[in-house]
Amino acid sequence: MKIILKQVILFNPYQNLNEKNDLLIENGIIKKIGNISTDEFNSAKVFDFENKYCVPGLFDMHVHLREPGREDEETVETGSNAAAAGGFTGVACMPNTNPAIDSAEIVRYIKEKSSNHLVDVYPIGAATLDRKGEALSPMYELFEAGAVAFSDDGNAIKTAAILRHVMEYSKMFDAPIIEHCEDESLANGAMNEGLTSTILGLPAIPKIAEDLIVMRDIMMAEFTGARVHIAHISSKNSVELVRQAKKKNIKVTAEVTPHHFTLTEEALKNYDTNFKMSPPLRTREDVDAIIEGLKDGTIDCIASDHAPHSIEEKEMEFIFAPNGIIGLETQLGLALTELVHKKHLNFSQLIEKLSINPRKILNLPIPLIKENEKANLTIIDPDLIWTVDVSKFKSKSKNSPFDKRILKGKSLAVINKGKMFFEDKFFDIM
Amino acid sequence: MSLSSRHLLGLYGVPKDDIQLILDTATTFREVLERPIKKVPTLQGKTIVNLFYENSTRTRISFELAQKRLSADTINFTTSTSSTKKGETFKDTVRNIEAMKVDMIVVRHQSAGVPQFLTRITKANIINAGDGLHEHPTQALLDMYSIREKFGELKGLNVCIVGDIAHSRVAMSNIFGLKTMGANVSVCGPSTMIPMGIESLGVKVINNIDKAIAENDVLNVLRIQLERDAGRRIPSTREYHNYFGITSERIEKNNKNIVILHPGPINRGVELSSEVADGPYQIILDQVTNGVAIRMAVLYLLGTMVN
Ligand SMILES: [Zn+2]
Question: How many C-beta neighbours within 10 Å does residue A368 have?
């Protein structure tokens, strides 16, 4: 089947591409850029995306799909649907499932579950068995089965000793270690520590709980020569630690979530558990440092930390409610609204952080907008104004603090693996 | 005159007029408590639930007595563990209770924010009887009432709160209420027990107990709650007593006009020596009596509001 994207702006900073043209896709392969004949126009399904941006498919390297174990909250399928609706053609899913992704069997199970979906799902293996921080997981075997990185996300890798071995081992196949940076002994809290936590009377987590592990991990990466990726960075000092480490050519990369560059701890004043996350929302000063870090490249990418929870679990007394919010369907809108329209990043930097850099970190090929390449594309209208409505989300869970928020910028369609998602529907374009 | 909110969730941001009104109303009820027949029909026909997720006999009895004195119907729902662990969620429990047509809920819970949560899921008036480390407004109101009774007014008084400020909802409610009423508030305790950012609330930090006694008119001395991980913030109760305990010698050396409050129950030999706990400087039992009057005032003012 042939489809034509008419008069789109073909945009890929990785190729230095920025041109308005027609794009012909045949059976999922980019066949022609421009010079499309009237006959071809007549025989193809034509999408009028004039002046909309066509970019390499977006990639979210930090999502929780809850399968296996909590299929009531999300599945590989519903999470992938949410990804497509949010403009993503690929995700990497965290191993804190039940059982954890610590065997090749589970890696294959997840890959199998996603094999027919438009969205590519890459499992992240547990760094240690059952994420307990005691013994190495069969990392090599997981890698060969398709794991693209290793993490004990939800927690930092427990001790320096096991972290050292995880890092040393990972070098054999050049996979990054993704760290949830939080010192467990300081992290028994429900929000950031400071005046606001004092006023709200919630047990609090100091920023140094994050900074200490970021520092430990950077030093361990330097010592072992392995690659470490700092997940959901949230504190000003941590951003500075990563900046300095990069100057010393230590192999460290970092991501930030939309909520950590959009919200501050002030949002907690009504004790709404949809603002409870780990790491917790910080202060204005941290948000400013994060934006600075995004601008100067200290922070390589944006990832959602999409963390579905059932309504019953979230509608709980604040200290008992679980951490985390869903983010796949608001991520692009928030990034455009808060970063691009506020002129902190240009569109090209945004695409690097939402598509190119996460794939580079995970050693995945970067989709090219070029004849004879597979079409792996996201169509974006950066100026579309829309209102978030969680009831329309594809995700099985609804725990978003952004319901009813007005955003500027949205994905219109995604194309990958011979499939397309457009106007709320999936269909084959083979 | 009526209050500006139909709930009492805390004293943070509560206007001066509201606090004044509660304290003045309590004076009226304080007189009722001196009568041979200590009961008024004010809340006849109203149903009040005391929803206590944390064990606190003292606070519950004080509320219950206040409710009986006002002729309200009272139901006690007490559970020491969270019902969430037993299968029923907090929200379901509350919905069930509300279906029994209750007018007011007095709530104590180990999680901060539960009173606010209740305002979203029920229509009843909510009174916070202590939530996590957040607030315990009626305790602070009775403390303020007791101080006012002793000194005539709160404005300009020097009041120091002593103890584990970082883990005390009583301290926070006192700070907010006293500041609003124009008192000069300071805190004194080991530096591991002073919360972050407290100075930005206009509170002075004193880390020497002799200085705290010398500089203040009132000390509100908190209970050292070893069960609330105070044990990890101080080496021992003996060391705490040596450096922060209030003793007769310290009072006589520094300030013989000091007035001592304590929300109870007292750890004798820890925050107060037995001599001080029973001595002439403390007004601890007045606080208990005033507590009933304050709770009557709050219940009356909220219970008779036109919703
Ligand atoms: Zn995490």
Answer: 16
pTM, two decimals, is: 0.94
Domain A57-361 has CATH 3.40.50.1980: no
Interval B285-295: pLDDT, tens: 999 999 999 99
CATH of domain B138-283: 3.40.50.1370
Assembly ipTM: 0.93
The architecture (CATH level 2) of B16-136+288-303 comes to 3-Layer(aba) Sandwich (3.40)
Spell out the alpha helix ranges (H) of A61-207: 76-86, 104-114, 139-145, 160-170, 195-200
Residue pair A327/A259 in contact by the 8 Å Cβ criterion: yes
Closest-approach residue (CA) in chain A for B202: A195
Cβ contacts (< 8 Å) between B89 and chain A: which residues? 312, 315-316
Cβ pairs A/B, distance under 8 A: 75
Q: What is the mean pLDDT of chain A?
A: 97
Structure tokens at A312: 């019953």
Residue B85 predicted with pLDDT over 70: no
> Any catalytic annotation for residue A305?
yes
Helix (H, G, I), strand (E, B) or coil at B243: helix
Helices B137-151 and B169-180: angle between axes, nearest 10 degrees = 50
CA distances from B188 to A110, B19, B24, B157 (A): 57, 25, 30, 16
- Cis, peptide link before residue A279, omega less than 30° from 0: yes
